[in-house]
Design goal:
single chain, 212 residues, alpha+beta, Jelly Rolls, 7-stranded antiparallel β-sheet, 4-stranded antiparallel β-sheet, 11 strands, 25% helix, globular, binds N-oxalylglycine, binds manganese (II) ion
C-alpha cells in the first residue's frame, strides 16, 4: 500500500468529504506516495510511446466524434491496460475514498471507472460538465496528476468555474482533485508540454439496471 501513513491518508479523505459537502470540490497533495505516482507516470508514458492510447471522443452514440479543438487528450481505460501493481494500488486507494464518501455523505457510490489521459503539447479540453445526459450515473470526478517537473508557464491547469470565480489547479505530480460531476464546470487549459493524469468517476447504481 501507500508509503504514506494510513492516518494521514484517511484524514485527507475526511477533508475531501467535508469539502465536497461545503463547496463541491477538493484538492489534496498528500494522498499518494511519490513512488506510486512515478510508477503510474511510467506506465502512462510507456503506453503513449507505444501508441497504446487512443484519441478521446466527445458526444454520444452516433454523435461520437474526435474534435481535437474541443478535447485533445489520448486515453485508455485502466480495465483495458496490462495489469500492473501500481494500477491495483491506485484503485485500492480510491476504493478507500469511495467508502469514506459513502459513509460521510451517503452518496451511494457503487463503482469506479478510470482512464489514463495524456494531453500532447498544444491540447486542452474546453469547458464542460462530467455528468451529462449520456453519463447520468457519474457522481464524483477524481483526477490524479502524474507530471514530475511541472513549472508555472507549462499551462495545462485544470480551471474550475465556480460562483465565486475561477480556481486554477496545476497538474503537478501527486495532486488529487475531487469534485461533484453534475455541478462543477471545468476545463483543461492548453498544455505546453505532455500532461499525464488518471481521470475517473465514482458512479451510483442505476435505478434501471439496463442502463449500466
Ligand atoms: C475530463 C477532465 C480534467 C483534468 O477528462 O473530463 O475534465 O484536469 N479532465 O485532466
Ligand atoms: Mn471533465
Amino acid at each position: 500500500m501507500s508509503e504514506f501513513p494510513v492516518a494521514q491518508v484517511s484524514s485527507c479523505f475526511e477533508q475531501v468529504a467535508d469539502d465536497l459537502a461545503v463547496k463541491g470540490w477538493s484538492v489534496q497533495a498528500k494522498v499518494f506516495s511519490p513512488s506510486l505516482i512515478a510508477a503510474l507516470a511510467q506506465a502512462c508514458r510507456h503506453m503513449w510511446q507505444n501508441d497504446a492510447l487512443t484519441p478521446a471522443a466527445i458526444g454520444h452514440g452516433s454523435d461520437l466524434a474526435v474534435v481535437p479543438e474541443i478535447r485533445g487528450d489520448y486515453t485508455r481505460w485502466l480495465d483495458d491496460c496490462s495489469p500492473r501493481a501500481c494500477q491495483d494500488e491506485y484503485v485500492q486507494i480510491l476504493e478507500a475514498l469511495r467508502e469514506t464518501l459513502n459513509r460521510s455523505l451517503y452518496l451511494g457510490l457503487d463503482s469506479f471507472e478510470t482512464h489514463f489521459a495524456l494531453y500532447p503539447p498544444g491540447s486542452g479540453y474546453s469547458k464542460h460538465l462530467d455528468r451529462f445526459k449520456n453519463n447520468p450515473l457519474r457522481m464524483v470526478s477524481v483526477v490524479a496528476y502524474l507530471n514530475q517537473s511541472w513549472q508555472p508557464g507549462d499551462g495545462g491547469e485544470l480551471r474550475l468555474h465556480l460562483k465565486e470565480g475561477v480556481v486554477d489547479v496545476a497538474p503537478t505530480a501527486g495532486t488529487l482533485v475531487v469534485f461533484m460531476s453534475d455541478s462543477i464546470l471545468h476545463e483543461v487549459l492548453q498544455a505546453h508540454k505532455e500532461r499525464a493524469s488518471l481521470v475517473g468517476w465514482f458512479r451510483r447504481r442505476p435505478l434501471n439496471p439496463l442502463l449500466r
